[in-house]
Design brief:
- The chain has two domains: 186 residues, no CATH class; 215 residues, Alpha-Beta Barrel (TIM Barrel).
- By secondary structure, it is α/β, with parallel strands linked by helices.
- Helix 2 runs parallel beside helix 8.
- The strands form four sheets. Strands 2, 3, 4, 7, 8 and 9 form a six-stranded parallel sheet that branches. A five-stranded antiparallel sheet has the order 1-12-17-15-16.
- The N terminus is likely disordered.
- The site of zinc ion (ZN) has 5 residues, from strand 2.
């Protein structure tokens, strides 16, 4: 045991003991003020701390594939649907609602069942700005918002069974008033940022950037990255953020993706997911994670009865419980069920295992193993990324990074075990 290394715990332990007396009375996942002292650690191992990871698991970035013009007769989109679903990755299909047949709606419901999202591409696929900006008409203004946005929203909800929460504008052209109208309908976001660009970890959900797959021969200046690996290479090199790719058909439609390219792209996405580097998800899932990460805080408190250890002045082993919860008012029902990855550092487990629970379920605790922490040169993207997470090994050092999946709304999470603890 390297007790000397634990001396910095002395001060923090006193704070913990002074602050955690009432944390056990918390009845939801929002801790009382007891967590203040223990949640502000620097992560250097001196003080337990917890934070919401930028993206689920160990992913450094998120990626979304969107196929526009669903219900427009692009049969080849079935290849994208199948290839992504077979690899466990969801994508999105933008429905032109007035064009959707009963067969299209049946397909929409199947696609939702395969993990995809049906998003709204308006009622009649008209231009929401001007002919100059869209390249063709007809155009419309607020007088048709109820039809283009409201009626189409109801159409998807009634026929696909899920109310849409993400919107893609025909011609990728929108106005402030149009986006505000969608916000009023309960949308979480819209693809209405700049073309040819990635997003950071923090963005306006109603203005995320994206890159369009253009037809061969027209890509010069219109498209930033090649389809198969270009955008994800850039995203991993950036080391954070969200990338959105817009496509239309596979082997058909405007700017078609070749079948082999679609397969190679799906393989590349799966490789990055399996390596723990990338999160691939439909747009509303990405925004749900983003909005919760930016809204909530996370805190950890030691749930120990201070009267039991009044005179301790040295390192002790205690069987105890750490309690993790969120700060911030609960978000509305649109966010229900979307778990967050919490990163915990500074916990020093003695012995074989700790048990984590939330809402009566056991939760797996993953200890992150870094591929390289000692590089001094500017690291290549692969070298600075983390490996796929592995299950905990016996004992935790204060500097260990632990990851747990936390579901807002399911109450506090507890981590029970024998911890080394310095008290005075
Ligand atoms: Zn379109």
């Amino acid at each position: 045991m390297r007790y000397a290394a634990l001396l910095p715990l002395l001060a923090s332990a006193a704070l913990l003991l002074a602050s955690c007396g009432d944390s056990s009375s918390s009845s939801d996942d929002h801790l009382s003020s007891s967590g203040d002292a223990s949640s502000s650690g620097s992560g250097d191992g001196a003080n337990p701390s917890v934070a919401i990871a930028p993206w689920p698991g160990t992913a450094v970035a998120a990626y979304t594939l969107i196929a526009d013009d669903f219900c427009g007769g692009l049969a080849g989109q079935a290849h994208a649907d199948t290839m992504m679903a077979n690899r466990g990755m969801g994508m999105a299909f933008g429905a032109m609602v007035a064009s959707c047949s009963d067969g299209d709606w049946a397909l929409a419901r199947e696609r939702i069942g395969r993990g995809h999202e049906i998003i709204n591409h308006s009622w009649s696929h008209m231009c929401a700005t001007t002919v100059e900006r869209c390249g063709s008409g007809p155009t419309y203004g607020p007088e048709l918002f109820e039809q283009e946005f409201g009626q189409s929203t109801q159409g998807i909800e009634q026929n696909a069974g899920v109310r849409p929460t993400f919107f893609i504008f025909p011609y990728d052209e929108s106005t402030d008033t149009a986006r505000a109208y969608l916000k009023g309908l309960g949308y979480l976001g819209a693809r209405a940022g700049e073309k040819l660009k990635l997003n950071g970890d923090v963005f306006d959900p109603f203005r995320p950037n994206f890159d369009v797959n253009w037809p061969e021969g027209q890509k010069e200046g219109m498209q930033q990255w090649g389809f198969v690996t270009g955008l994800t290479d850039a995203l991993i090199a950036q080391g954070h953020g969200w990338g959105i790719r817009e496509i239309h058909g596979v082997n058909d439609g405007w700017g078609p993706i070749a079948l082999d390219s679609m397969r190679a792209h799906a393989d590349e996405l799966k490789r990055l997911v399996d390596a723990g580097k990338l999160w691939v998800a439909p747009p509303s899932e990405v925004i749900r994670y983003h909005d919760q990460r930016e809204h909530y805080g996370a805190e950890i408190a030691l749930a120990v009865d201070t009267t039991v250890y009044p005179d301790l002045d040295s390192l002790v082993e205690i069987d105890t419980v750490y309690r993790i919860g969120l700060t911030g008012e609960p978000l509305d029902a649109r966010y229900d069920g979307r778990p967050l990855t919490l990163v915990v550092t500074g916990l020093r487990l003695k012995g074989e295992a700790a048990v984590a629970e939330q809402g009566g379920r056991s939760v797996t605790i993953r200890k992150e193993i870094r591929v390289s922490d000692t590089l001094v040169a500017a690291p290549a993207p692969e070298e600075s990324a983390t490996s796929a997470p592995v299950l905990q090994s016996p004992g935790w050092e204060p500097s260990d990074t632990l990851r747990v999946e936390f579901t807002p709304g399911d109450g506090p999470m507890t981590i029970r075990g024998t911890f080394l603890y310095y008290a005075n």
